[in-house]
Amino acid sequence: MASEHALGAAHAELMGVEFDHFDAEREEITLRFTAPETFVTPRGSVQGGLVAGFLDEVMGWAHVWATDQKEAPLNLEISMSLLRPVPAGPLIGKGRVVRRGRKVIFLEGELFDGENRLLARSTSTAIPTPRPTGEK
């Protein structure tokens, strides 16, 4: 289950990642996040690079789940658009596989607030790689 794997990583715990569900037909995952107050800048919203982290997480897990946990994406490029200020507190991320080939995959992600307003969008071009085991 993604929640076991995602929550085991320190960065995911920092973002408050919780697995919601995976739609295998659409190759789309939904994760819940909790953005802590410590992510908020003096402007009053979550810092942009940290928003990219939420989107990166949800796009990556979409590919992991679409490959039955066998592969993980290695990003070549990530593009992000901030559409509204991202508040601290609960957030919902949706990530999906747009196209998967043997040598390259295309992913997209969206971040919503608790009222289902779209806050940010992203796309990623990545290389499919064997999923790391975490063992050294």
Automatic annotation (TrEMBL):
SUPFAM superfamilies: Thioesterase/thiol ester dehydrase-isomerase
Alphabetical keyword list: Hydrolase
Stretches assigned to the Thioesterase domain: 44-119
Pfam families the UniProt entry points to: 4HBT (PF03061)
Protein origin, superkingdom: Bacteria
NCBIfam families linked to this entry: unchar_dom_1 (TIGR00369)
Name this protein carries in UniProt: PaaI family thioesterase
Naturally occurring in which organism (per UniProt): Qipengyuania citrea
